[in-house]
Amino acid sequence: MFGRRRQLSASSLSASILHVGFRYATFLGIICFGIEGNRTDGCLVAQNRFWYKRFCLLTRLLICVIYGYLSLDYIFILDNSHLIILSWIRLVCCLICAFVTLTLQFWFGQHVLRVVNSYLRLFRKVNALPGSQASGFGGRRELSLLIFKMICLMNEVFCEIPELFNGLNMRLFVTILCELYVNTNATMIGHLCFVGYLSVGALYARVNHYVRHELRRQLQGLEQLNGSEVSRRQLRAAGCRLDQCLAIYDDIQRVGSAFHRLMELPLCLILLFAFLSMTLVSYFIMLQRFRNVGLWLLVARLFFDVVLLTLAIHGASSSSRVVRRLSFDNCYVTERNDWHMKVSLKFVGQSYDSFLY
């Protein structure tokens, strides 16, 4: 029983939540690749599933056409000019988000696959650092953000399900189902950005923890109490650990920048979609004289989605800047001038290679 409790750490729970989210995004057709263990060494590798990608293309196109037809039919019967404008803007944003998803899957599919595999390799490298015990995802901060994200996802899925069974009108059933699918696909871009930036922050946090504690302790072990010279073997071993740590910093910065460039435009679109959705729902709340609790919850969920994404980006950015404050002034690195030069130049150079600039 106690062994099982030890296994239920924050990192393992976060990894389980990510696994559930991955299955959910795959079911919706946002993620068209599979992550399986490699046959040679058992390491996780993302691989294309071309048949599922084609199925998602046909399904998304069909549902978007049905959704556009039903939305236009709804807009043409409105008599409120403000509501007509907001509905048109929201319809266009939903279709643009669907087009962006198709673009990421079919024109940038290989690029997305390379970024995902780079993330997986980085987590393997970080878990292989000496003294690293946790093999899951992040720590308590990441677990807290993921729990709040799961609450928002459950609210997003289940808020409109009661409307599906409200009467036996087949047209209403199809309309709500298509709207739920299109809106969920649009917001899923924001959820993927949240996971990507949260992963960058978790990687930086793990390596920063290693530098603060394990690497500092190993470098302090080079100090000889009797003032004798450190052996060349000890210097070589410490130098390898330092080079390994700095190489991981470079890899995180490179992969994080590649993800940021890939998702920069989709992120701007999903933020625009979120704020327009909040505006439209707020207008509905005013029309109903602030008495609809469900719409209040919808606005709160859209707002919390933006806040969680902001916190994930802030965590990745602040963790990348922690490298500037990792000081070795109070840590012994031998009396050799070349070692002082190595530590100073490499860590000063890292300070200008922050993830977000």
TrEMBL record:
Protein's cellular compartments: Cell membrane
Keywords: Cell membrane, Membrane, Receptor, Transducer, Transmembrane, Transmembrane helix
Residue intervals passing through the bilayer: 12-35, 55-77, 83-108, 188-207, 267-287, 293-316
Gene Ontology biological process terms in this record: sensory perception of taste; signal transduction
Source species, domain of life: Eukaryota
One Gene Ontology CC term in the entry: plasma membrane
One family name in Pfam for this protein: 7tm_7
Record's bilayer topology term: Multi-pass membrane protein
InterPro entries attached to this UniProt entry: 7TM_chemorcpt
Protein family according to the UniProt entry: Belongs to the insect chemoreceptor superfamily. Gustatory receptor (GR) family.
Function per UniProt: Gustatory receptor which mediates acceptance or avoidance behavior, depending on its substrates.
The protein's name in its UniProt record: Gustatory receptor
Species, as recorded: Drosophila mojavensis
Lineage: Eukaryota, Metazoa, Ecdysozoa, Arthropoda, Hexapoda
